[in-house]
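Entry 12.
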Amino acid sequence: MIVETKSNQSREEAKMKQIRTSFKMISVMSLLALTVGCATTSSTQNKESMLVASGFKVITPKTAAQQQKLQQLPPGHVAMINRKGRTYYIFPDVAHNQAYVGGPKEYQAYQQLRAANNIANENLETAEMYQDAQMQWGAWGGWGMGWGPMGMGVGVGRFR
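Predicted 3D structure (tokens):
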């Protein structure tokens, strides 16, 4: 009787372990999918907010022909269209069935906003690099022969 109980217990423990492992795997895969989805959405939302801030108008296609033209535009990129002697810049948002449309002035403002945003990102990256650089690199004792604390060329082919 005691042997049967231990055998049943070990089977139940094995089933529970399998259930826990399966649950953990599903959780990890769900979190990964959510992270990737949010990263993609964040990038697109950032572009869309910059376009609106630059003066682009949100247009929703009303006819099947307009819908088809929206589908043909390159996703994730601003396309330049010439129509009746005027230049338009269009950013398609097929997922929301709309397009951001602006003229040369709005596009120039968008480019300037993107440049300012890139400079801000570069400044952040530079600040992070300087923060890393101050992490006691001197504790290594230099970069090897010829690049010690006395300066370039110490000991090997020294210049005067």
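Annotation: DSSP finds three helices and four strands in the chain. The two ends are 93 Å apart (CA to CA).
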